[in-house]
Amino acid sequence: MNALLIVVLMVPALGAAITALLPDRAGRVAATVTAAITFMLTVVLALPRTGAWFAYVGTDRESLVPWREVNVSWIPSLEVDFHLAVDGISAPLVVLTGLLTLLCCAYTIGKVPEGGSGRTLAALLLVLEVGILGTFLAFDLVLFFLFFEVTLLPMYAVIAGWGGPDKRRAARKFVLYTLFGSVLLLLGVFTVVTAAGTADLSALLGGLGLSRTTQYVAFTLFALAFAVKAPLWPLHTWLPDAHTEAPTVGSVLLAGVLLKMGTYGLIRIGVGVTPSGAAWAAPVLAVLAVAAIVIGSLVCLRQTELKRLIAYSSVGHMGFVLLGIATLTITGVQAALIGNVAHGVITGLLFFLAGAIKDRTHSGDLADLGGLRETSPRLAGLFGFAAIASLGLPGLAGFWGEAFAVVAAVQRGGPLWITLAAVAAVGGALTAAYFLRLLRRVTHGAAPAPLSPGIARGEWLAWAPLVLLALLLGLVPSLVLVGTHDPISAITEALR
Amino acid sequence: MIQSINHLALLPLYAAAGTAVLVLLVDLTAGRRSAIFGTAAAGSLITAVVALYSSGESTFCTGALCSWSGGEASTVIVILFSLLTLGVLGLSTRTPAPPGEFCFLLVCSMAGGVVVAYAGDLVTLIVGLETLTLPLYVLTGLRRTIAGAASAVTFFLVSVVSTAIALLGAGLIYAATGALHLAALDPHSGLTSGSAPVAGPLLPLAAVGAALLVIGFAFKIAAVPLHAWAPATYDGAPLPVAAYLSTASKLGGVVALAAIVSRLDTGPLIPILAVLTMTVGNLVALRQTRMVRLLAWSSVAQAGYILAPLSAGVHGVEAALAYATFFVVLEFIAFAVIVALLPPDAHGGDIASYRGAGRRSPWPAALFVLALSGLAGLPPGLAGLFAKVTIVDTLIDHGWGWLAGVVAVNAVIALAYYVRTAAILYAPAPGLAVADLRLPKLPIRWPVAATLIGATALAVVLGFFPQLVYDAVGMVTMSTL
Lengths: 496, 481
What we know:
A: two-stranded antiparallel ribbon; globular; B: 481 residues; mainly alpha; two-stranded antiparallel ribbon; 19 helices
């Protein structure tokens, strides 16, 4: 069964090769079939070992063993093992990756954005999936870095090949920014590996006696690297451009799972491998996270472009996630995890809907939009649902991450954290304000031009799972959180 | 004194030199293009096989000091030289040049590479390096244009000066230490007893000698500020020769530098050269508009990455050789794709003229992306990624963290021009029908196709199993220590 971890990476890789060789339409179908198989595999992967569903308590070392694990020696000279594993922290993200890739591939069957052939796009999506899944599954520091890099050029190609009018500049900005992040990660990884003599993440958990200075240096490098990816204010400026220009499927994957590589890395590697460094830098991280929440919301209030607005809202939401991580408490990290998944689902849906609106109206400018409620009531209803989920209405997925990030900050206590919690809560209110403004602009008012009211079957197929998940995660957040308590407490306890 | 000669150790050199003579004979008797190229290709393959067979043999020894000393490293280097020669032969079957002379000169240069790989003393090393370079002056000027002649003369003058400098360095070192054998120069080898120990007033002399040697060899790998000849020479030379210059010729320089740096203390010279080379190379490459010049400047920058681990002295030699191995394979693929996309006698041309090549020739274009991504150190060019990882690992491991930081920043600068160049191939040509483009879709000649496939297969294998390279060069450094 553990070979499944390798199979889940091999299937999309092979699928990408086959897709690239087949004729256009057949290629897109093949890609979708591959993505469907991969999704099923990720679901099987994410089923906890027998009994783990109820094993909330008991933090003995035994329960820290990942659900599934495979470890093959690969490059002894660099201390790299092909060590993959899945546990409570990575499982929800793995499933989310499988799901979003499947939806994006299915979406390309119905609609190929202008620019290049559809099968190439579908093949690139599958390659992206390999990189993202590998990053979430890697239990070896160097391997994590390798998979982190795999996503770089395919995403560049997706934006530069199928994007909007200013795609080249946006794609170049994206690739240079993220490469800058990943070379810092490279430096951090080898700072740790040469000091510790191993790259195995389960051995490195808790720092493995790394000296304080090493941890400070390494955590600084890790934090910068992941802050570019996540992105954390003020290193976020590549994100709005990339999102505005990227095709719909590119935006969905970028916001849905690519950004999560940053926050996941911060939890697993930043906090997990260099805990003293994390404790030392946590206040700075928290202040920046809260700044991101407030600034992201304020920018959104003034934003006039639909996709740019959603992109900036991502900056705010990722701010909540990072605030949760920065508290370094179990509650905070759990909030970050569910915030991660909820943001992936909801923002993925929002970008799908924004893409659909832009396709119909040929404009993303809020001044040109309006009256969607009358011209296309179903689309307007879905858009309203997604926006309300995103602003964190209780009962929907967005609520848990934001609310408990604030709760965790309050629990940390002390004037700094209480202030941060209060400011973050205000930022949450601002989130509501700009989403309501967005809804008023897009769905209400006079319709400039009539548009086709219907929603195609392919679109329903792509959107329905996300709508259901946004509802389900809101009602049963433990779907994500089951099995996270032990690994997280292992990570955070190293601090005490 | 009578020396016994171990002919087994000399077999690779016999194979290489014998091939050169045989090529001339075939040119005289048969004279057919295919026969000449076939002989040269078979000869370079045989050289590689023989090098495997005679692995680890030494000869021309006085006591423990050998002038011709083989190790696993020498084997790898000889194999690289012969494969690169084979590849260049594959690319140049239609080059408008007299085939007999062309092949003879190329194989002679390979023989020089074999000598460099086995060199056990400074004189053999310099003679080998000269044998490697000498035929290239003629090959560079083969195109018989003004630009070709100019580039050949530039290359010739710079090379002669650099050899003079290296010889002066060797002379000073001999004057200071009385030793020429590489093993005897190593203060930790325990073999210095036979020669005068370096001490007192002679110490600065030895240091100057070592610095001059490094400077002389740095010319060969086009390290900044000794690089000015490279872009002009590459651009003027026929494309396959430019490919050879930027891979095999550079490899010779790296081997020579590694031999010096691992035994003599050269102070801050190497890190300074490394930082200058990678930074200047990358910054200037950003502004290039001609394809071959872009590759030339990028290979200047790559020389900087190779130099960086040599800052750590003997500890960085493995990493430098590993990086060089990954680099020559990827650089060769990049040149091979350009050869495949262009007519046989063509210039590299402007980067803009490659617009749309990805749609007409998807396979070569995909390989170009593979090569450039590897040179940038990113997947799918996994071999290049491991190359970058290797040097960063080595630098951090030996306390050169700041230099690793410089390498990292340079990797970001370099990506800017690599993605721009790769993206041009897939950019639609504005206002032009596909048929009007400068590069028509050409049928790829089979030797070029075979070369490309072989090189790509090698790059992919090395990308997934980089341990092969580490094992090979690791053993080398162990044995020569």
